[in-house]
Q: What sequence folds into this?
């Protein structure tokens, strides 16, 4: 059955069918679902493109899902994963197969092993999120790039400048910019004067470090009347997070602001509230999760900075798919606008 015949049987135009099959914009969600349901019912398996005819039903793309070591309602990769699956299920109707591997430890050795396993399975592309920056991981990626495997980093994307590793496309999340915006915003909240604490998660997760380090730098550069306490790192796990928060508040009764980039931020915001400091301390959090939104609504934090994680997951699948089959990507697919949420913006 040709696509023109298929469009006629479904009762849509050839252009509409093409948009649905290639996951392009221009078709409403309800209509898209109706078309996909009809395609599935008819048992149609379309070509991806003319040049991919011979590769139909045997092209695989690997997706490595990062490890979440945080409470269930604050898990970044769980949000990303769900939207990845939504997108890949649609694209699999064109014959491509998506191979998912979820990291457990989050360690570099585990990520390298998964990459090697996927390469052995014959995948033509791999999407992954960096956790640590190591030469061994970069060398592994570069080795398989030379063998023709496309790689797309998402979420944590920064690469050490002195490496030869390059990516044709990556879904950028600029943690340095996030940190500087958080610092500027918090300075405004506290009127340009006061005392601020910066808290980060595990040092191995460099996204946390980039945020708090850049926030610290900007505060020291621009706000002479703000005292910035030494950065508190490795805030993990939950019990340690609460002990750390209590220590900070007891030793700094005049604390007026806090920037928190760690998985157990909810423990910290709850501790601030329990110690009667919620109205005294302005708090900024990172990553737009359900727990962060709850804290914002309840007044336990004043702002959340991050990107749309659902969009990130969905677009990651689109980008790696386009690179594998077209060797190019529509710019709209990999732009990740930064969002700043205030209480007023989510009510």
A:
């Amino acid at each position: 059955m040709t696509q023109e015949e298929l469009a006629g049987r479904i009762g849509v135009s050839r252009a509409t069918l093409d948009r649905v099959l290639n996951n392009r914009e221009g078709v409403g969600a309800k209509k898209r679902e109706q078309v996909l349901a009809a395609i599935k019912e008819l048992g149609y398996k379309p070509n991806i493109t003319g040049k991919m005819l011979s590769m139909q039903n045997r092209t695989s793309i690997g997706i490595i899902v990062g490890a979440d070591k945080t409470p269930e309602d604050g898990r970044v990769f769980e949000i990303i994963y769900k939207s990845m699956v939504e997108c890949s299920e649609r694209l699999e109707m064109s014959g491509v197969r998506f191979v998912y591997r979820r990291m457990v430890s989050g360690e570099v050795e585990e990520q390298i092993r998964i990459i090697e396993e996927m390469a052995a399975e014959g995948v033509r592309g791999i999407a992954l999120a960096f956790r640590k920056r190591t030469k061994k991981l970069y060398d592994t990626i570069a080795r398989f790039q030379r063998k023709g495997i496309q790689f797309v980093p998402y979420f944590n994307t920064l690469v050490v400048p002195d490496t030869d590793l390059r990516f044709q496309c990556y879904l950028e999340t600029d943690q340095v910019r996030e940190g500087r915006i958080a610092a500027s915003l918090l300075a405004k909240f506290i009127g340009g004067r006061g005392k601020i604490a910066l808290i980060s998660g595990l040092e191995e997760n460099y996204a946390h470090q980039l945020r708090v380090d850049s926030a610290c730098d900007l505060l020291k550069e621009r706000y002479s009347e703000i005292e910035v306490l030494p950065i508190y790192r490795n805030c993990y796990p939950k019990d340690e997070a609460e002990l750390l928060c209590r220590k900070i508040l007891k030793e700094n009764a005049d604390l007026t602001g806090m920037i928190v980039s760690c998985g157990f931020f909810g423990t910290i915001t709850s501790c601030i509230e329990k110690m009667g400091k919620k109205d005294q301390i302005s708090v900024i959090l990172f990553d737009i999760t359900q727990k962060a939104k709850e804290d914002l609504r309840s007044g336990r934090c004043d702002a959340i900075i991050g990107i749309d994680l659902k969009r990130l997951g969905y677009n990651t699948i689109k980008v790696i798919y386009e690179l594998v089959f077209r060797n190019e990507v529509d710019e709209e697919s990999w732009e990740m606008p930064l969002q700043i949420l205030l209480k007023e913006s989510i009510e």
